[in-house]
Amino acid sequence: MKVTPFHRVAGEVSSAASLAKLPAAKSTKVDLKSDVFSAAPAPKAENAAPAAAAGVGKKGAAALKALFENELHTLADRYRNRYGAFPVKKKDFGWDVDAAEAKFKAGIVVDPAKSQDENLAAFQLHAHQFINAMNDYHVSMALNRTASARLPFRIRPIGDTFAISSIDREKLPRESFPFSEGDEVIAIDGKPIADVIAENMKYLPHSNALADNAAAATMVTVLRGRVAEPMPTSQTRSITVKRGDGKTLTHDLSWNVTEERIKPKLLGPGSLNIRGLEEEPKMPSLDMTAHRYIDTEALAAAGKQGGVDPFLMGGRKTLLPDLGPIIFRTEATSPFDAYIYRAPNGKN
Description:
alpha+beta, 3-stranded antiparallel sheet, 25% helix, 7 helices, disordered N terminus
């Protein structure tokens, strides 16, 4: 049998206080004394991060700041003219688009020492936070970004804890990933899970605490550039899990990264792909969908394995039980679990 490099699992963790002492993830050769090994391959040298790009300088920073301010104003105009919930938000929650624009305009920062791409990414996050401040789950903005990073499992909040909700066993067979749905996630990259969730919150809108926690938990294993989520700075992610048998193990996995294929050209307005009101947009500038929360790749993976993940938004089957005896149900190939059932009063 050919022996290839693996990432070793750190041993048992006796208490939450010891999490801060967890060693950083390291690529090692197989140690036959280890209890468990991860199937993640060792990082390759050719995937090392490229050298940092040169900064834009003072003049470039001034030009970018003016461009970003214009883009923010165009985005705010979209809400002034096309956001039907604007009067309600202002009346019931005190949210005012003019005040919000002024606040976020003052918060635009361009660092002369950073590259154009770095400053653009920071502004795109800033623009997302402008939208998130409305606390409207159904309004979001999709960027012209292709970068993403994934791990083949997901976690969900359960009360005050977080647990594994699904595992792609095609990519993580049990012998290499010895955890199960329901096992409690204690830490990520050596940080308590609560701290990681709190950090993820700055990328999301806030309205309902339970929904906010679920969205922040999704970001632990799925990151997408199109909604301004940051790509991993490390090639691996460490997960510390308390299993059902009481053992606490730390496991390392390599991110599955899709590289960025689009390089924005800042020759004029367009860093947010927003068009003027006089132009007919080819796609809605304000996307009134929940695309941030629907993970089509995860849905496809669940269907491919012949099962369902009831926690996935957009999935055919959820945790809602059948409401009565089924008279008719759509076929399994339908994206919707629609059915007719017999009610207690005898009506269909």
